[in-house]
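FYI - complex with NDP, inputs then prediction.
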Amino acid sequence: MKIGFIGCGNMATAMIKGILDSGKVTAEQMIASAKSDQTREKISSELGIAAAKTNVEVVDFADVVFLAVKPQYYEEVISEIKDDIQKNQVIVTIAPGKTLTWLSERLGSEVKIIRTMPNTPAMVKEGMMGMCKNELVTDEELQQVKEICESFGKAEVVPESLIDVVVGVSGSSPAYVFMFIEAMADAAVADGMPRAQAYKFAAQSVLGSAKMVLETGKHPGELKDMVCSPGGTTIEAVRVLEEKGMRSAVIEASKACVKKGREM
Ligand SMILES: NC(=O)C1=CN([C@@H]2O[C@H](COP(=O)(O)OP(=O)(O)OC[C@H]3O[C@@H](n4cnc5c(N)ncnc54)[C@H](OP(=O)(O)O)[C@@H]3O)[C@@H](O)[C@H]2O)C=CC1
Ligand SMILES: O=C(O)[C@@H]1CCC=N1
């Protein structure tokens, strides 16, 4: 299978590296385009795959084409490539807000489309992706693309109605987690710990806690209770987090994120 990326920024670079490292596809089977000469140079030198001069070149080469430009450029890029898309090709989108209906109206009603929402932890092969398809994509084609995407993390098929929710819970959420890590480290620095050490302690605690949720199958509340000794330190922190509205802040932030995605 030949894979192409239109746009090669943060998200595409992470995905391409994961795909290449998995060995499922060779560098000769991949191509990517970008706006600037500088990025095209990086595609050849850092990723070691062909750098396309035009977006049409990507479509002419690949069986599966990822649209990895910012949502505001989707319309422009689609009008550039739509006449070159063949019936057996699959177009994979990664932008928030661009529904299968919106995409079909612009790409053409006969085009196979998979709509996904990845996240940047793909850079360390710990991504989380939600994906859905239009009726022209076969289950086998969806499975093939899913397997490619699993080379940079986990992927799950969801109904399209949940893709905006995926933006809130995993597409954008790494940003909230980084803020949480930064804040915990700031507190440690305030109490005298060197900054680099503070990031390590904070990040490893988040990594370990996330693993506990995934690997023990226990309710997060139960895991929280296991840390809170009666009359101890943790329950004091939990009391202040509740007082400051931590859970509500996260819920409201995530709902604002989902709302924005629906409006895009
Ligand atoms: N960043 C994230 O955490 C996530 C992003 N996404 C989605 O991924 C998509 C890409 O985001 P991200 O990687 O962060 O963005 P970047 O800005 O990092 O990358 C965008 C890329 O698109 C290229 N580009 C711009 N215009 C064109 C064009 N007309 N033709 C070809 N290439 C073009 C740019 O080229 P150049 O480098 O030359 O400027 C750049 O390589 C977006 O739709 C975003 O919503 C989804 C989930 C998470
Ligand atoms: O902020 C954004 O719009 C993109 C989509 C999800 C993460 N980044």
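The radius of gyration is 21 Å. Residues 195-216 form the longest helix (22 residues).
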